[in-house]
Amino acid sequence: MQQAKKTFMYGAVILSVAGAITKILGACFRIPLANWIGAEGMAYYNGAYPIYQLLLTIGTAGIPVAISRMVSERIAADNEGAANRVFKVSMVVMIIVGIVLSGALLLGADTFSSHIKKLNGSYYAMMAIAPALFFVPIMGTFRGYFQGMQNMKPTAVSQIVEQLFRVICGLALAHILLNAMGREYAAAGATFGATAGALFGLVTMIILYTKFKASKSYREKREEARKSREHKESARKIIKQLLYIAVPITIGVAIMPVMSMIDLLIVTDRLSASGFDAHSVRSLYGQLTGFAGPLINMPKVLTQAIAVSMVPTVVRAFKARDHDFLHYNVSLGMRFAMIIGLPCSVGIGVLSEPIMLLLYPNQPVDAVGAASCMTILAVGIVFLASIDTLSAVLQGVGKQMIPVVNIAIGALVKVVLTWTLTGIPIVNVKGAAIGTVSAYIVATILNYRAVKTYTGTKFDAKKTFLRPLIAVSVMGLVARGLYWIVTPLIGSVLATILSICAAGVIYVVMLFVTRSIKGEELKLLPKGEMLYGFYRRLLLTMPRKNGKMNRS
């Protein structure tokens, strides 16, 4: 059991670090981009991205996971040849998928853009990003293959390379085209960064795969597989299993881009209907999706890494009827979702306007306008973190359709609230933010109930919710109070940075003070013994109960 726990945490850390780096690079991309092209330019940019993300999700969200699962099963059965067969058949499937998706966006860009009210300038951005739909599915096949062998490093490296070239190429083209041709073309140049990043990410995966094939261990296993002359699985059988695993996952993941499409299709129309002119519509939509939206999604990379690493552990525990280990992992996952989600919600919420002004100093009017949306969306971060974790648990116990239904119910709630509230002039795009948060809350409640029903897990409210909530409350008060006190002395920019740094330190200390993290859990992390030593030293300074150290 201990080894399984180490495997779960180690994989999560690798993907979390890679995800954090890509998000930082993403911020280095979006922040200067928004400062250059403004809310109107970001509206063109984000007019293309929801469609791209939806098509990409439909074609690729479930298949890499299915490849990973199928490769893992065959390697566990010591059948390297069958694992390679899965990879080769999957590669052919994903090349076809890439051609279809890329062609669909290239041929349909004019139709898509013409149906987005006031944003038909996004046509150029759609054309620029369409080739990425060919490269990403192929790259996903490589990632699924390596993940199936429990090797997360190639995925992590390719993610960083992909994002790095997206930033470099996207910003360079946006800057050149903005000066030469205007905001519509600058947005297209920025979206082409995704195409360039996908191409270089794919090249990275090919290089890593080639090196892996040249390794001695791979050659030995390939020779053993050749000598065994085991019966090859038919391509039809592999594709059938691939789709059986992938389709439910794809449906569930696709609902999130659908929610972005809801904003794209409803918000602009309702703003126009409520009396806003075309320029105001683009500015408000850009504030919602280009300024506030990306920051809200940043913590998701950490919770997704935990969720991906949780699934195989939950599957093993559930099939082995090891209820104690199952409940341990479910509780641990939910607790870490709170530990990650709560500080992000509170920190962004209490410093929304200072953060916006810090990030977008060249667009102060749009930054202040986006702050109200970000304050609302910040509430949804902790619920979004919970959705990832609880959905992973349900997938692990064979109930993968339940989170699909639950997020679909949440999406229906969003449609109603977004349509109703966005049409009220005083509410405007804040109505879409309220709708999004409401969708997350509904899905979280439904998933939580389902996890308790199908796993029998009884969550300890004190450890899972109360202790992290106390820690984050202290953090929030310190962050807001410090900003209010020091701003007149050092200015808003330095005050914001100081408040964020202080909040991070206070929160980590409060996690130990409230014992939200256990010592044995620290040992499962890289450098865990060092972290555990710090934890023990801190406990020695804490109050004791009945003369003994409180180890709860």
Describe the structure in your own words.
- This protein is mainly α and 552 residues long.
- The protein has two domains: 46-233, no CATH class; 254-459, no CATH class.
- It is 85% helix and 1% strand.
- The chain contains 20 helices and two strands.
- The chain has helices at residues 2-60, 63-76, 80-114, 123-129, 132-148, 153-181, 183-214, 216-228, 235-273, 278-297, 300-319, 323-350, 352-359, 364-396, 401-422, 430-455, 461-490, 492-513, 519-522, 528-540, and strands spanning 544-545, 548-549.
- A two-stranded antiparallel ribbon has the order 1-2.
- Strand 1 (544-545) and strand 2 (548-549) form a beta hairpin.
- Helix 4 (123-129) runs parallel beside helix 7 and helix 5 (132-148) runs parallel beside helix 7 (183-214).
- The model is unreliable at 1-7 and 547-552 (pLDDT under 50).
